[in-house]
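Researcher: Re-running this chain for the archive, since the previous output was lost when a drive failed. Same request as before.
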Amino acid sequence: MEITNRREFLATAATAQLAVTSIQASPAEAAADAVSKPLSVAVIGCGGMGRSHLATLAGREDVQVTWVCDVDRERLATAAKMITDAGKPQPKSTTDLREVLADESVRAVWIATPDHWHGPAAILAADAGKHVYVEKPCGHNLREGRLMIEAARRNGIVMQVGTQSRSTAHVRQAMQLLHDGAIGEVLVAKAWNSQRRNSLGRQQPTDPPAVLDYDAWVGPAVWQPYQANLLHGIWRFWQNYGCGDIGNDGVHEIDIARWGLDVDRHPDRVAGLGGLYAVDDDQQYPDTQYCIYEWSTPETVGTKQLIFEQRDWSPYVQEGHENGNAFYGTKGMLVLGKKSGWQLYGERNKLVDQAEGSFSLPPHYDNFLTCIRDGGRPHADIEEGHRSAALVHLGNIACRHGRTLMFDPVAEAVIDDSEANAEIRRRYRADHWAVPAGV
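Model: Regenerated structure tokens:
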């Protein structure tokens, strides 16, 4: 087959990016007003990723950050200062996201909280009529992901997940090559997360810092006492609050792998093994993990498979990429790093084509804001985010129980395994205001 010329593709992508940054007015609004009036937005969660969002948003002319929200008052003050230091008006500050959602002038929110708040906050925002950009993984558990889809659809809002590779030119080009048959039928995709993480150590419960509203931080999740290796940032290694590193860095590569396989539903079978092989500390997720997902696809060549590998103690890159993907087809192979580019090999390992590239946040914002103003589904629509996050959750469940799961992709239920199926949902704090209906 004839492979798309990458220079032509990147030129087209660049033109498209210019088109999305030049946002047109909707028919219902006066053109001048739509262009001159920045969109009022809020950032909920002002930690590492939240500050990254703030730094980018503060430099844009098409949005105005009018609210910042965080339960840590030091982080909240830093967030507000980032906006004023950029020469923009002082945003309102709050430790309670309900204040943000009650403001009818706010059109969109960026949610960069810990994982256990992603689903509840996004659903509340959607029901308040706000468009939502929510960090990955989109929900703390599989059931929340489904409820997020339902909230987005019933309220007619745009819900974009923070898997920014979906808006990255060289990744989109690689996916197009795969879907056009550049390596034949893609039967197997591999995703890996290979890097060195520090040990969490072991700690005992203590009083939380005075600047932190710890009760609000726990929110609707099951309560546990504060301890120093629980937050910030390291909450992701605790089951009540995070999804492990597979749901942190791993979900980016899992999303790309599923995209390249071109599967638009949940898998039929999931297996997983893993544990704490390299460290002995308080974390509750594997530092070493191997998960396999299979889709029965009789309409094509046959079953498709996705493999996820994780080594949080490894100082080595794999196939040229610290975190990356490989796609194996009947006529070749494609190796991809979202931060560096891709290489396409034909039969007998002949290098056929390659490209460089790196992801960035602005194109993903452009796509989100364009969908708000002009309509349409975003690149990382909540439904896509849910399908990839579901692989995170199912992989973790399989690893915890050490057995293969048979999964009903329509009912979203583990078959003939009540113990594993119970983990499709999670427990919540009784009567907390943020617990979603239907959990």
